[in-house]
Specification:
This protein is of the alpha/beta class. The chain is 49% helix and 11% strand. It has a single domain, classed as TIM Barrel (Alpha-Beta Barrel). The chain has helices at 25-38, 57-71, 86-99, 117-128, 141-144, 150-156, 172-182, 196-201, 211-214, 216-227, 231-250, 253-263, 280-293; strands at 8-11, 78-82, 103-107, 135-139, 162-167, 187-190, 206-209. α2 runs parallel beside α3.
């Protein structure tokens, strides 16, 4: 499985839930089929938009099972692994691979700060060695309060199946340092919605993000313009999509994407408490943005 190559647009799937927090499996299947029909290149359940940090293992496991079954091998599935402990992450990673996910996206959540880079190396190395599938490292310093250093990534590059980095720092200078030091040893996915064009300019291979659930066609168009090196057009399209990113920063990410999907006919339900559902003002803002972008 380590021979698989991932690139393109990988929507961060929401996790459809009813008021009691139970998974709405049919809605999730419908969303998977819809996104594949629009031409996405892969799917990522249990990322930030999928509220993976809020779900217990039984629900996370079922999400992966439903997505893998619904995708049916048409596109690769890279499932999020998010556990507060290394032991828990190892168990979830191994089980996620057994279910049939094509790769895993590993997050290092933190409660007590994890500032020692060797601890970070040990965590990701241990999880990677529990599976044979490709591993994507995920960093989001805004929430985790830590970030990879180039030296840390250099050490992790010694693991043959750690092959991708999903970067949500938005720090283009840092990414330039990584690309310069490590070449193509790590293939980079953009996560942050305001920099995908710039990440692709640096040689990035795609975009993993929640907005692609709402605007799959526009996200794919952005990626294809970048592949054709039509940078001016790509930048103009990113500017057009920019208000959606502003809304995500103003409101909760999962709440925004879920509200937008409800407007498109997918009854995905509210985010899990204590997250709040988008209020009426927020819904009007998101609706207007989607209308301006040209989403029916």
């Amino acid at each position: 499985m380590t021979g698989k190559e991932f690139s393109g647009i990988f929507p961060y799937l929401v996790t459809p839930l009813d008021e009691s927090g139970s998974l709405k499996e049919d809605v999730l299947r419908d969303l998977v089929n819809h996104l594949i029909s629009k031409g996405v290149h892969g799917l990522t359940p249990l990322g930030s938009t999928g509220e993976g940090a809020y779900l217990d293992w039984s629900r996370k496991k079922r999400v992966v099972e439903v997505v893998v079954e619904a995708a049916g091998g048409r596109v690769p599935v890279i499932a999020g692994v998010n556990n507060m402990t290394t032991h828990g992450a190892v168990r979830e990673a191994a089980e996620t691979e057994r279910i049939g996910a094509d790769g895993i996206l590993v997050v290092l959540p933190s409660y007590f700060p994890v500032n020692d880079q060797q601890q970070i190396v040990d965590h990701f190395r241990t999880v990677a060695r529990a599976v044979s599938c490709p591993v994507t490292l995920y960093t989001n310093p805004k929430f985790a309060m830590w970030d990879f250093t180039v030296d840390t990534l250099q050490q992790l590059s010694e693991e043959s199946n750690i092959r991708y980095l999903k970067d949500a720092s938005g720090n283009i200078g840092k990414l330039m340092s990584i690309v310069t030091a490590l070449g193509d040893r790590f293939k980079i996915f953009s996560a942050t919605a305001h920099v995908p064009v710039f990440v692709l300019m640096l040689g990035g291979v795609g975009w993993m993000a929640g907005p692609a659930c709402l605007i799959p066609e526009q996200s794919i168009a952005l990626y294809e313009l970048a592949c054709q090196k039509r940078w001016e057009e790509a930048l103009e399209l990113q500017k057009k999509l920019w208000p959606l990113n502003v809304a995500f920063h103003r409101y909760s990410l999962a709440a925004c994407v879920k509200a937008g999907l409800e407007m498109q006919g997918f009854p995905v339900g509210p985010p899990l408490p204590p997250q709040q559902q988008l209020d009426e003002e927020g819904k009007r803002v998101v609706f207007q943005i989607l209308t301006t972008i040209g989403v029916p």
